[in-house]
Amino acid sequence: MPWRSLLLTVCLSWGLSAVEPIRVAVDGWTTLNPLLMTRDTDGEAVDLVFDRLVTMNAEGAFIPGLLQGWTVLKGGREVILDLRPGMTWQDGTPIEAEDLVFTWKALRMPQVRAIADTAGGVASMDSFVAEGPLRVRIHLARPRGTLLSDLYNFIPVPRRHYQVGPKPQSNPVNFQPVGSGPYRIVGKATTTHLRLELWPGYRGAHPGAWPAFEFIDSSEETNLVQALLERRYHYALVRALPHYLVRKGAQGGGRLQAFSVPQAAFGAFFLNCDPKLSLLGDVALRQALAELVPWQELARARRFFPARLASAFWPPENWAHDDTPRPLPQIGRAEAILEAAGWRMGADGIRHDRQGRPLTLVAYEQSTSVTRSTAHLLAEEAAKVGMRIEVRRLSFEALTEKSTDHDGDIWSYGWTTSLDPDVDAPLFTREGYRTKANVSSYLNPEVDRLFEEGRYTLDRVSRRKIYLKLSEIIWRDKPVIPLNYILVRVLADARLRGVSFNVLGQAYGFWPGKRGWKLEDAQP
Questions:
Q1: Whole-number pLDDT of residue 302
Q2: Is 405 helix (H, G, I), strand (E, B) or coil?
Q3: Rg of the Cα trace of the chain?
Q4: Is residue 83 within a helix (H) or strand (E), and if so which, with residue range?
Q5: What percent of the chain is predicted at pLDDT more than 90?
Q6: How far is CA 139 from CA 82, 95, 397, in A?
Q7: CA 341 – CA 36 distance, rounded (Å)
Q8: Are 95 and 180 in contact (CB under 8 A)?
Q9: What are phi and psi of 465, to 5 degrees?
Q10: Cis ω for the linkage preceding 512 (within 30 of 0)
Q11: What's 516's DSSP letter?
Q12: How far apart are CA 448 and CA 431, in angstroms?
């Protein structure tokens, strides 16, 4: 009997609910609906409940998922997708080509794109046509260099359950998913807790190894090390200090293991480029602000807790990374830029322009226990040159809502890039502006043209040159100021086996990912 069938037989005989689940600490999530995902954490559980059309291995190579295979025809202008036979949704109905067509149409709906923009992905392909129960034909006006990345980011849903109404976020299916993956939701899922158990009906290519998972919102947890030792969690992202202490043996008593891996992500300041809504509509002010980035404070922390100062939008883990050396921020240059732009120091210690407007800005950041956050450090530097920045703290949901509504001048949060830089296009383009994915309200026709050109360029070397040019423009115009490339720090129960990360530094979104995790010596 195959090991997977044996495991399933044992689990069913004992009862899945009696098995110790692998408990994953997550900093909140918003949905379990693949159509509406907006946070990285949304994908962690979704990746267990749903199969992608194609997935990737740990090295970043694309491999079949729901698809049995794909065929590229007519020089890339047509693509045939063949589904694996015998696959079913978790309600027992067959997975069919019409489900793929339905998902493609749903992703194009305005009410969906206003939540989770998909411009540039599968949703923007010219047509999706079912040819029989297991085959889809894609027609493309032009061959796409992004094809496999687009298929990777496409997670089909069953058409019988995912009809999109005027208010997609209120649909009960968002937390009662009917998936295609090896795990299904048990009981009631919320934004703070959910339990997954192996689904006996899974017939896909990438099964799960452990009978059950539990995802728990740990955003209010004050001592993750203690919580791990108490086995309230088996896996958690942690801050630098507890990770360092466990790694050095000062905490954990040998019962925890420490992992660290570079992630294709960074912390950043997103700037409001709309001149009708913010003073930062003036590129000179954005350039001056970039010279005030508190790099010395960030560098000082690096002596003890390694991090990487960001020098380009796409991180080193991305093939579009621009490794051009960049000068470090200098407060003197900020003063010179402000003077040249006509901002003069007033008697109140704040600069004013020729119209008498004070140089005051509002920055929003996520609520945290850290007193001197990067936003507060930026405000301290800004005060030295006559710029006042008021820092306001919000929940992550309120912060992202502020940025989506273009309310404020600066928004501080992280960004994770994908394998293909085209996925980030909505952040900078007119199309992203229409769907509110372009939170900076940044508009540049040359950027729109280059992203369009990059999407339809097949040669990898030529594509990289396009994104290097885009990187130069983004660095010059400063709609986003990357700060530190993120180093993921994880603590895990010493019994947890199979923990690995893909080329993006993620523990999900690839095979085996979390599907390969096991608890050593755990008894049902």
A1: 59
A2: coil
A3: 24
A4: strand 78-83
A5: 78
A6: 15, 22, 38
A7: 42
A8: yes
A9: -60, -35
A10: yes
A11: G
A12: 8
Neighbours of 369 (CB within 10 A): 7
Enumerate residues 6+ apart whose C-beta is below 8 A from 53.
65, 66, 67, 81, 100, 151, 152, 154, 155, 156
pLDDT score at 119: 54
Residue 71 backbone zone (phi > 0: left; psi -120 to 50: alpha; other: beta) = beta
Q: How far apart are CA 468 and CA 460, in angstroms?
A: 12
Q: Within 10 A of 189 (CB to CB), how many other CB atoms are there?
A: 20
**pLDDT tens readout for residues 218-261:** 988 989 999 999 999 999 999 888 998 999 999 999 999 999 99
Structure tokens at 268: 């950043």
Residue 286, token pair as written in the block:
């954005």
What residue type is assigned to position 25 of the chain?
A
SS3 for 260?
strand
In whole angstroms, give the CA distance from residue 5 to residue 200: 9
- The DSSP string of 300-350 is HHHTTS--EE--SSS-TTSTT------PPP-HHHHHHHHHHTT-EE-TTSS
Amino acid at 424: D
Cα distance between residue 516 and residue 194, in whole Å: 19
pLDDT tens per residue, range 157-212? 999 999 999 999 999 999 999 999 999 999 999 999 999 999 999 999 999 999 99
pLDDT in tens, 258-271: 999 998 889 999 99
Question: What is d(CA 358, CA 348) in angstroms, rounded to the nearest whole number?
Answer: 10
Tokens of residue 242, six digits: 């507890």
Structure tokens at 388: 């006042």
Beta strand pairing call for 212-217 and 193-198: antiparallel
CA distance to 58, 91, 309, 376, per residue, from 30 (Å):
26, 23, 30, 27
Q: Which of these, 104, 102, 488, 113, lies nearest to 315 by C-alpha position? A: 488
Distance, CA of 278 to CA of 274 (rounded, Å): 6
In CATH, the architecture of 263-486 is: Roll (3.10)
Domain boundaries, the chain: 3-216+495-519, 263-486
SS3 58: coil
Length of the chain: 524
Q: Could you identify the residue written with the tokens 């820092």?
A: 391
In terms of C-beta density within 10 A (0-12 exposed, 13-18 middle, 19 or more buried), how is residue 110 classed? Answer: exposed
Which residues of the chain fall below pLDDT 50? Answer: 1-14, 523-524
- Phi then psi for residue 116, to 5 deg, are -135, 95
SS3 at position 395: coil
User: Dihedral of CA 130/55/22/46: which sign?
Assistant: negative
Q: Which SS3 state, helix, strand or coil, does residue 451 take?
A: helix
Domain 3-216+495-519 has CATH 3.90.550.10: no
Kindly state the DSSP code that residue 255 receives in the 8-state scheme: S
Decide: 189 and 522 in contact? Cβ < 8 Å: no
pLDDT of residue 13: 39
